[in-house]
Amino acid sequence: MSQADATLTAPPPARREKLVTADGTPLRRALERANRRRKLTALALVAPLLAFILIFFAFPIAQMMWRSVDNPQIVNALPRTLQALETWDGQGIPDEPVFAALHADMLEDLDRPRREQAIGPLGIRLNYELSAARSAISRTSRDVPNFEAPFSDAFTDAHRLWGQPELWRIIKREGRPLTASYYVAALDREYDEAGNIVQRDENRRIYVSLFGRTLALSLAITFMTFALGFPIAYFLANLPMRYANLLMIAVLLPFWTSLLVRTSAWIVLLQQQGVINELLVNIGLISDGNRLNMIYNQTGTIIAMTHILLPFMVLPLYSVMRTIPVTYTRAAKSLGATPWTAFRRVYFPQTLPGIGAGGVLVFIISIGYYITPALVGGQSGRMISNEIARHIQQSLNWGLAAALGTMLLVGVLVLYWLYNRLVGADSLKLG
Amino acid sequence: MALPAYYTAKDKIWHYAFRVICFAIFFFLLAPILIMIPLSFNAQPYFTFTREMLTLNPDGYSLRWYQDFLGSDSWMRSIRNSFGIGIAATLLSTSLGTLAALGLSRSEMPAKALIMGVLISPMIVPLIISAAGMFFFFSSINIAQTYLGVVLAHAALGTPFVVITVTATLVGFDHSLTRAAANLGASPTRTFFKITMPLILPGVISGALFAFITSFDEIVVVLFVAGVEQRTIPREMWSGIREDISPTILAVATILVMVSVALLTVVELLRRRGERMRGLSPQ
């Protein structure tokens, strides 16, 4: 036996020639080639989806983010004016050559085919910075062919705005292909006369406080889902599988039910003539005139979103709690810990990965939520997403919408990175 | 489940109090959804129980909101749209997603983490941002307000679910089976359809269901990318809630709850079958 072993393990007679495959290629090269082919096959399988996502998802978002700094309007419309403005010191009204250049720019633009005219976009762009700028531009451009020197008088007669240094400062400042002004506006700042970035007047600050409110609401919702999710996850995790699977339906049914259905359910329950108010009035707890305002405000947003996002907290918590052995708590108790101490010192720390995972997940989802706040949030329950949608659909300030969206996206990606560090994306469980 | 004999009175109170709290939370989860079902049979255009309903008087109940729903052209169109767009988007995302998952679960796949990150990004990016980006891009290539645009958008949103579920199924996949098939002379395509596909089918189906429900329930992208012709059920509900809220919404909601119960059952059965097949079930 030992002799046979010895012959088997004995080193083969030393051979100088390389190992080759049947057709004579060196083994190393054949292996490399085979590995390369397998790598290419794997890539080829992923390629269609990767291309699809890059074209129809990643590219559109990158393009949208680009809008937050893209600033071609003034450069396209007023090349000569910008050149003439280079020597202007920013004080008072520019000299006659600048107005002459403006006249030439506008005249040239009028000769272009309508679709290529740059004056329309210019008016829209300037209007973001200075209201009434759009009407100034459009009214002046109609009269431009009749203007005669001196042009500075002709322009200021056509619209008073041309006589204001503020408009000229904006044209000079924003006469660059890239701009920071959308971000300046998104942070509730503006440029002062000297070109410094300063805070806006108190009553014109919107976005910072809206971001703050979005964060506060998301935190409140995350905390609510934790407060409600933890007990039932614990309860389910400590039930025999048969009962747990049955009761799990109570968590999964809302999860699978249409978002619009759940939101309208809360409207039905919470509105002034809704089920809860009727019930309270009928049993005499509140009078008919004092019906509770539970919807179209922050309360409505928090209640409805807690309900909608609760499964996202319960599911990760449950899967973590299932893996915690009961014996640890028992051991703590047998060593003299009270049930509360055993829970606090032994059980609870082991649930932290689940709390982290569920918490970050709920927070990420709620921070970018749009539908529910839009339907039940009223004015005080609005979130940053609603403001982004308003700028895209109603006020048409796409640059500002892009700036707000980019800030939101960066925030979410940072949180997701954190989530990934905490639990790993692979453990993302569905259903 | 009898209580342990060593429980003190305080333990017992806590034990029952905890149960009451838990059932209150379960009630909070289920009641809002279930309460719409009886209300959808309300004979009056109110969102609350009338006296007739509470006394179980048959006059208090009617099917008028269901008739409203079935007789409305815009609701019927929204049903066709929801299913048409949902099925088309699911087919696209399931086929692309399954292929990608097969590639991703190969050990020789380069830059796996990075590619996975890109592929599941539609699930992470807030919908409002995806919708805004798609709105601008689809308008610029003239597919905004077309069926093609909505299908492509929904397919992109659904793929992460397919990739994740199919990749998870492939974790327990025994690769010696495909090697054996190849060894016996089967071509890669034949191996895929005869060996791999039947084994990963539960994962593919549940991924497809997730993709379908994503599209079926999606509203933000529809609000931005779809035109009047492409209005889906959620889009129709959205205007129902915003403009003239009538109990027709509740009839639709009841039907949708039934759909979700059906889907939940299928997914649950698939999950159990998958666990049994991989010997993961604790029972």
Name some characteristics of this structure.
heterodimer; A: 431 residues; mainly alpha; MetI-like fold; 3 domains; B: 283 residues; 74% helix; ABC transporter permease (chain A); MetI-like_sf (chain A); transmembrane (chain A); transmembrane helix (chain A)
Would you mind describing this structure in some detail?
- The complex is a heterodimer of chains A (about 425) and B (about 280).
- Chain A is mainly α.
- Chain A has three domains: about 45 residues; about 100 residues, no CATH class; about 220 residues, MetI-like (MetI-like fold).
- In chain A, about 70% of the residues lie in helices and about 0% in strands.
- In chain A, strand 1 and strand 2 form a beta hairpin.
- Chain B has a domain of about 170 residues: Orthogonal Bundle (MetI-like fold), CATH 1.10.3720.10.
- Helix content of chain B is about 75%, strand content about 0%.
- The interface between A and B is large, with 85 and 93 residues.
Quick recap:
Chain A has 431 residues and is mainly α. Chain A has 20 helices and two strands.
Question: Which shape of chain B, going by the Cα principal axes?
Answer: globular
Q: Point out poorly predicted stretches of chain A.
A: 1-8
Global structural class of chain B? mainly alpha
Task: Tell me the strand percentage band of chain B.
Answer: under 5%
Judging by the overall fold, what is the CATH architecture of the largest domain in chain A? Orthogonal Bundle
* Residue share in helix of chain B: over 70%
* Most residues in contact, chain pair and counts: A-B, 85 and 93 residues
Rg result of chain A: 33 Å
CATH homologous superfamily annotation of the largest domain in chain A:
MetI-like
Main pleated-sheet profile of chain B: none
Percent in helix of chain A: 55-70%
Write the layout of secondary structure elements.
The complex is a heterodimer of chains A (431) and B (283).
Chain A: H1 2-9, H2 27-67, H3 73-77, H4 79-85, H5 96-111, H6 119-129, H7 133-143, H8 151-158, H9 165-174, H10 181-186, E1 189-191, E2 197-199, H11 207-237, H12 241-256, H13 259-270, H14 275-282, H15 298-322, H16 326-334, H17 339-367, H18 371-376, H19 384-393, H20 398-423
Chain B: H1 9-39, H2 51-54, H3 64-70, H4 73-104, H5 112-119, H6 121-124, H7 127-140, H8 147-171, H9 175-183, H10 188-217, H11 220-225, H12 233-242, H13 248-277
Protein name (chain A): ABC transporter permease
Domain ABC transmembrane type-1 (chain A): 211-419
Membrane topology (chain A): Multi-pass membrane protein
